[in-house]
Please model this.
Amino acid sequence: DTERDSASLAFRSLTDPKALDPALAAFADLLTHPAFPDVEFKHQKQQALNGIKHNEQSPSYQADQLFFETLYGTHPYAHPILGTTASVNALTRDDLQRFYRTYYVANNAVIAIVGAIDRPTAMRIVNTLVKDLSSGTAATALPLAMPLTKEITRLVPFPSHQTHLRLGQVGVTLQDPDYFALRVGNQILGGDELISRLATDIREKNGLAYHVSSYFMPLTARGPVSITVKTEAQKTQKARTLTETILRQFVQSGPQQKELTTAQRDITSGFLLRLKNNAAVTHNLSFMAFYHLP
Model:
């Protein structure tokens, strides 16, 4: 998988050595001796270009990408995860191999293991994975993204019955002391798509949107805080005005006690779902390690 801050490889196997050992050997070989055959490289490159072309037909994707470009400017987060037509076309197999040799190294690696195994078995798995992996050098830290200092509005015509609105600003990192307060605040504002303020006022009371929510995405170099509204074209301005009004009121007055209690309960109970199976626990462990969380 590939995300804005990281890339990951994962595998799952039975713990019986008859299954685990050959699976582990194959996975370690893939990690440490990737072949990147030319025919497959060209195939995947074409697949990426097809994906980009498909995304160009999606107003929601276009709005997301325009939002990141506008918010982050020359920062790496402005670049789409899948790339652009120009960047993918320019990519060569040598570029891919050089990137892999530089960044897929032990000093960049986080390994999370979950299953019915003891510590010696876990250490054997780790040693198998990294014994042929170059130690390398840890990736240079991204520069912190800077918040916008003035409002920017960008309008893009699109042949769609819906208007897709994105409103937002550069937010915080996971290490920010206000992270948990902001996480709860976002849940109240629009994180809960059923009973949040945005959902209640814009969708339920006024019928201005098919979908409305807010999103809080802390990243290594400050991720975005954003509000998404999907509305009928003729209701666009009214939906935008009401969204901005709700946001200003929330920033000025904060939550009511009932909203606060409900959000705290929903977040803490929802966390249990993130520990529902081995894959979920593995994801959380690797997330904690990658972002240097306690």
Observations:
- The chain has a mean pLDDT of 93.
- The beta strands are 162-170, 211-216, 224-232.
